[in-house]
Amino acid sequence: QVQLVESGGGLVQAGGSLRLSCVGSERSFSNYAMGWFRQAPGKEREFVGAISRAFLSSIKTDYADFVKGRFTISRDNAKITVYLQMNSLKPEDTAVYYCAAGARSDTSHLVADYDYWGQGTQVTVSS
């Protein structure tokens, strides 16, 4: 059982930046693809980005079109942590952000492909 804890959310003005962190509970963390999703009030949870398993020869990342060029995902396996660097934030980025770990598929966009989820961290972008 992998436990995930997000942090780093908060209130920021449009155009600003935040870095979210997601800390895992065990060293097998490197065996999981890691995804970031978000959910705004009244909307479904949506894919933001993902990073592949750490033991692959080349690490892959993938992003939703609406964050490409603004958000960057990275992972530090020694710290059992995955990061979401968010730049040029917009009011429409306001949501609860969740990290997730998946063992079956790399950089999947699908909620169902992820096995473990954090509790979420609120990001609010003011105009």
How would you describe this protein?
This protein is an all-beta fold and 127 residues long. It is 0% helix and 46% strand. The chain has no helices and 11 strands. The strands form 2 sheets. Strands 2, 4, 5, 6, 9, 10 and 11 form a 7-stranded mixed β-sheet that branches. A 4-stranded antiparallel β-sheet has the order 1-3-8-7, with no helix packed on it.
List the helices and strands and how they pair.
Elements: E1 4-7, E2 10-13, E3 18-24, E4 33-39, E5 46-51, E6 61-63, E7 71-76, E8 81-86, E9 95-102, E10 116-117, E11 121-126
Parallel strand pairs: 2-11
Antiparallel strand pairs: 1-3, 3-8, 4-5, 4-9, 5-6, 7-8, 9-10, 9-11
- Report the helical percentage: under 10%
Percent of residues in beta strands: over 45%
What's the Cα radius of gyration? 13 Å
Order of helices and strands: EEEEEEEEEEE
Largest sheet at a glance? 7 strands, mixed
Catalogue the unreliable spans: none
Total number of helices = 0
Average pLDDT confidence is 93
Could you give the distance between the termini?
Answer: 40 Å
Give the overall form.
globular
Total strands: the figure is 11
Question: Structural class of the secondary elements?
Answer: mainly beta
Compact overview of the structure:
The protein is mainly beta and 127 residues long. The chain has strands at residues 4-7, 10-13, 18-24, 33-39, 46-51, 61-63, 71-76, 81-86, 95-102, 116-117, 121-126.
Descriptive tags:
127 residues, mainly beta, seven-stranded mixed beta sheet, four-stranded antiparallel beta sheet
